[in-house]
Amino acid sequence: MPAQTRQPTPRAYSRPARDALTLLGQLIRANRIERKLSVEGLATRVGVSRDMMRRIEQGDPRCGIGLVFEAATIVGVPLFEEDRDRLGERRAEQAAKLRLMPKAVRRQRTVVKDDF
After folding, report:
1. Least crowded by CB within 10 Å, which of 28, 76, 92, 100?
2. Residue 54's CATH number
3. What distance lies between CA 4 and its chain's CA centroid?
4. pLDDT interval class at 94 (50, 70, 90)
5. 0.70 cut: is pTM over it?
6. In this structure, is the dihedral angle defined by the CA atoms of residues 61, 67, 71 and 77, taken in order, positive or negative?
């Protein structure tokens, strides 16, 4: 009897996450077309296959975030800030904030009151 292979459970994504992915894909596609770049041309510049580029434009959540951001940057879709210099400033501000925060979050211990 052949061994049964277990199928992975599909990942469920929230509606806002799916909407954001779809919107980003649409923005990448629209900017690519405005810049008169073919899917193949953008895929080559990003360093991915034509199929992967299509998945990015469709908002597939399984695409690597680095690839999606690279495609967005190449076609001019702003990431977080219109001004690229401001993005660097915000990154530095966030790094400073994180340095002030605890390194890890620990679950608080439950104190049992057993002094009857």
Report:
1. 100
2. 1.10.260.40
3. 34
4. very high
5. yes
6. positive
